[in-house]
Amino acid sequence: xxxxxxxxxxxxxDVIVVGSGAAGGQTAYTLxxxxxxxxxxxxxxxxxxxxxxxxxxxxxxxxxxxAGTPDKPFGFYDSTIDGGWQVPGEPYTSASNEPGRQFxxxxxxxxxxxxxxxxxISLRNGEYDFKPRTRDGLGFDWPLDYADVAPYxxxxxxxxxVFGSNHGLENTPDSPxxxxxPPPLARAGEQLAKQRAARLxxxxxxxxxxxxxxxxxxxVLPPKIHPNNPRAQRILAASMQERAACFWATPCGRGCAIxxxxxxxxxxxxxxxxTGNLDIVSNAMAREVLMDDTGKATGIxxxxxxxxxxxxxxxxVVTLAAxxxxxxxxLLNSKSARYPNGLANSSGLVGKYILDTVGARLxxxxxxxxxxxxxxxxxxxxxxxxxPWWLYKEQHAGKLDFARGYHIEFASGRGMPSATSFNGLEAxxxxxxxxxxxxxxxxxxxxxLSFAGRGEMxxxxxCFCDLDPVVKDKWGIPVLRFHWKWSDHETRQxxxxxxxxxxxxxxxxxxxxxxxxxxxxxxxEPGGKIIHEVGGTIMxxxxxxxxxxxxxxxxxxxxxxxxxGGPFCxxxxxxxxxxxxxxxxxxxxxxxxxxxxxxx
Amino acid sequence: MSxxxxxxxxxxxxxxxxxAAAASTTLIERGLPAAVAATPASSGAIxxxxxxxxxxxxxxxxxxxxxxxxxxxxxxxxxxxxxxLCELILPADGSHPGARAAGVHDFVDEWxxxxxxxxxxxxxxxxxxxxxxxxxxxxxxxxxxxxxxETQMTAIADDICYxxxxxxxxxxxxxxxxxxxxxxxxxxxxxxxxxxxxGYVGNTPxxxxxxxxxxxxxxxxxx
Lengths: 600, 223
Hints:
The complex is a heterodimer.
Chain A: E1 13-18, H1 22-33, E2 38-41, H2 49-52, E3 83-84, E4 93-94, E5 107-108, H3 127-130, H4 132-136, H5 146-160, E6 162-163, E7 180-181, H6 188-200, E8 205-206, H7 221-225, H8 230-241, H9 264-274, E9 278-281, E10 284-291, E11 297-304, E12 309-320, H10 324-333, E13 352-355, E14 358-365, E15 385-387, H11 392-396, E16 406-412, H12 426-429, H13 435-444, E17 448-455, E18 464-472, E19 478-483, H14 488-507, E20 511-512, H15 520-523, E21 534-536, E22 560-562, H16 577-597
Parallel strand pairs in A: 1-2, 1-12, 2-9, 4-19, 6-7, 12-22
Antiparallel strand pairs in A: 3-5, 8-15, 10-11, 11-12, 13-21, 14-17, 14-20, 15-16, 16-17, 18-19
Chain B: H1 11-23, H2 76-89, H3 104-112, H4 117-141, H5 150-160, H6 171-189, H7 192-198, H8 214-219
Helix pairs in contact in B: 2-3, 3-6, 4-6
């Protein structure tokens, strides 16, 4: 059982999983390891990270020295295929023309979805993050606690391989012994930031990222991950042995041919396929959930993009993991006389409370970092350290003018020079050219660094998506229309970020490359820009206030699940992917139990 | 940790494999582009780019050269001027090739010939700027820019190398110079020679990542 064409789909499966990214990958992995027969539908093409990843290519080998373009917004070598802020032939629309009310939607039409290029930052939500309303009266509490999710965080960390360390900080959970891999040492700029940030009372600690800093132990981990399932242990052990540890070169966003980082295509799908329980059809664009007369889901109607024809696939259970907004789109497009507002929508909340992460950035030039002796700072690709939110007490005491926190990510150092690495250097050189410019390039290379805030947004009534009444994609499927508006909580948080970053840069003896924005509305990135879109099928304690229960099972249709970011009813500052995988695993365990009991 | 099972693919094999894969596409010797599109020079009108881009699913592991994906623009005269300006911005010195020898002007040509919004805007800036530079050289020294002495080139460049200091009537030329310097630096320092020159020593597999060396920590007061 493997990659098959639409013609080879079997008559019936236990579960259909729509999507192959972090959520679909985790869902299919858990289900197939426990013996369920699964059909996965992926809207994009198949993708082979072993042979398609540009390992060690330099920018001089790429068109435009690798610079980003509308075809490849994050640069030529970014692993995203047929995606980006726009997908050809598959538009989305905005309800407003106002600049502050835009939502930008990053998609990737490829096997493994956005996991191939993601930043790999893997932070656990803390106890507060699941009960935000209890803490400050805003937004929604989750119908579960940190303790419910913690065992799944453990398993996901061990499975995918996450480096990091424990510091016992408030609402920044420690992982049990044996879950995390050792973090890499901090780079020069990161160490300098740590020394100077301490003077401001900001803790700089190793970040958690899904990169193997050492090989996984195939004897120890599989029995912990799959107790009482020797076959799953064997399959996982074999898969772990195919993964090399990071060799500290080539950026993670290109994907990783040696499987040192987590991506669904190198970590979830190979063992799931090895069970023999998984069929995957690519170029299969899900359009609707099929229903029977008794109110049960029976399968998926999809477009086979290779022929343009409609096809149907059937299963006992349907799980949407198409990305939170795409899953909303499928539910809303599944409308019929019986379900005029789409499926699982008796609450009217499908598409409501979509969330992204608050993002703002500020850069600086640090004279201390000029003319450093050349040394290799590639490291594990992204940042090695971060600053977790440090003002929980002050915020809780009402001393800040915004309700939720943010963490700070670093971009520092001596990265591989690109087309734009030396742009605007005249701001510090006064316009040198010739031999002096050569000297200046050597002097200033590696002396720039920037801080990026990643903060919690509070769900609000103005942020939702629905179907555009007119526009359809090239397959004839109605597209999503986004409605967006930041509240003062987010823009004030962005202003706080700017002030903090300027203080950090000053504490490092540096100068900001642009003045910090006092008005957060000018600093905040547009909605969607951080690519942490979640919500839209939020979970809750009852069918009136939510679309799914704590098991990602829709209240209205018992055999229909949404295991992507859709059920998030808050979006902590912690990057959402790790939590998404933990919740997908938990939901899949429940799904298996319910199937066994005959409830679905 | 206990001893892992004998791995099917160990690190050494993985590195070898990846290196072999990389080596097959890394030997870049940038020659002249096979054909330079014959568009009329300095007529004042800038021909729009009509070529297609590389799309949303390009081959990421092959080696690309200017002109491979979309046709180039420069006439022989523009190319000579651009090469001379590249060399003025990053001249050869004892131990490093100049931007001309590194073929950076061909990268600039590739850039301004690309069918994307940033590059379309830079196309206007660069082609108008090169025409201005030629005209200015003729006006001041009665010769094309590429045929000027270094002193003569410098006399022009000093007036436009930093926009905040440029005379009002020379601001557009200064913006051209800034754009061209960005492209020259990006084009040059992303080559192997350029990366080595600024001290980028990564992109090589390591068994361990040891963080900054002691002399770096010492210099930062972190030792």
